Amino acid sequence: MKKCPYSYALPLAFSGSQLSRAEALARPTFVCAKGQSGFTLIELMMVLVLIAVLLGVGGPSFQSSLQRNRLQSAVNTVATALSFARAEAVIRSQPVSICPTIDTSSCSGSNWETGWLIFVDNNEGGGGAASDGTLNGGEELLRIGEPAPQGVTVRTVNFPSTAAIVFTDSGRVLQNISGTVTVCDERGVNEARALVVEVSGQARRAVDTDGNGVVEDDTVTAVTCP
């Protein structure tokens, strides 16, 4: 006989011609209830262990992927900004500069990850000199760059100034001096990316020619991170 794991009592129905109320209450009918479904403690613990294993295996890989995408996004943003500044210099036949900024209204500092400005550096309205790499007077502001993602640094080396990159009206770099823009994150130089800006004004991705795992700047020297 199949046992009933759960049961509860119901009083028998009664009427005046059959059972009295007292007799119905004294002779209850037992009804078998279906067992409730759910997870046991052991099953729940097994699920939690499985989740922990999956996170342990996939978590670091996912984090690394996010870091690579974040760094590459910053490099692409810098490359686009340099290309735009050079193109505007040629189109307008006037010098165009790009400089770091911390307040979105003036050139300031040398840490490009705080944001940058692109402007026509022709000394319009006075207050400075043409091609001085400083936004002043009535010079036209062409574009404002957003700060780099958290943890990403953007720095320049080998240009005439770390405070600006100036493109002449022919699209060349001012004073015909090349330089490099290096983009790093908390992983250091082994994961750093860089853009080499040639004398012509064109930018290219830095490469690792000696196979030591670190890309090289325009002087074929391994880049460094802050």
Explain what this protein looks like in three dimensions.
By secondary structure, the chain is an alpha+beta fold. Helix content is 26%, strand content 21%. It contains two helices and ten strands, in the order βαβαββββββββ. It has helices at residues 21-26, 41-92, and strands spanning 6-10, 29-33, 96-100, 116-120, 141-145, 153-157, 165-167, 179-184, 193-197, 203-205. The strands form three sheets. The protein has a four-stranded antiparallel β-sheet with strand order 5-4-3-7, covered by helices on one side. Strand 9 (193-197) and strand 10 (203-205) form a beta hairpin. The chain is elongated. The N and C termini lie far apart (79 Å). The relative contact order is 0.11.
